[in-house]
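Fold this sequence, please.
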Amino acid sequence: MTDLPEEAARSLARVAATLAAARRRPPAADPAELVAALDTLRRLRAELAAWEPELVTAARDGGLSWAELAPALGVTSRQAAERRYLRLRSAGVDDRRTGEERVRDERARRAGDRAVTAWARSNSGPLRRLAGQIGALEGLPAAGQRRVADVRDALADDDAARLLDPLAGAQDHLRAEHAGLADEVRSVTDRVDRLRRDVSGQHATGPTR
């Protein structure tokens, strides 16, 4: 565990020593030490849970695909890896909204997602054409080539809405050598962002039912 931050490593070492003492026969751990170890373990679990989304973010920024991260996250698909990341990231946010506000915001978010999904499906042809062009690219730097692989993976899905995130992820990696394709992706992401904001805003200002 030497790759853990120093203080967490020391804390974990103390917990491990207390556990080793508790396993002896007769137990050599003091009851107060056991309680302290349990409290430390609880705090370490919370800290470790906060580290995971940070590490995933760093890995994604480094060009790793969801498919490459899935085994390390203990899941079997890129979709499950992304869902786990989003769930953990959301859990770490200091959320001071009221219950009613959370319900309203969640409904607004879902309405935005539905609108974007419907738009992508109705524009499946242009999206697949763009994704096909990007998926055929070769010779990009390693990070960019991984994002191209994400686009190819999504292109194999029957749902055109699956293309949106991989296309957005590839955009910055196309700018240097394929500015025209990057501009097309930017047009798509701008359209999606406007649609999501418009629909979410309409629901967020409406009454909660």
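Residues 99-204 form one domain. Residues 20 and 26 are 12 Å apart (CA to CA).
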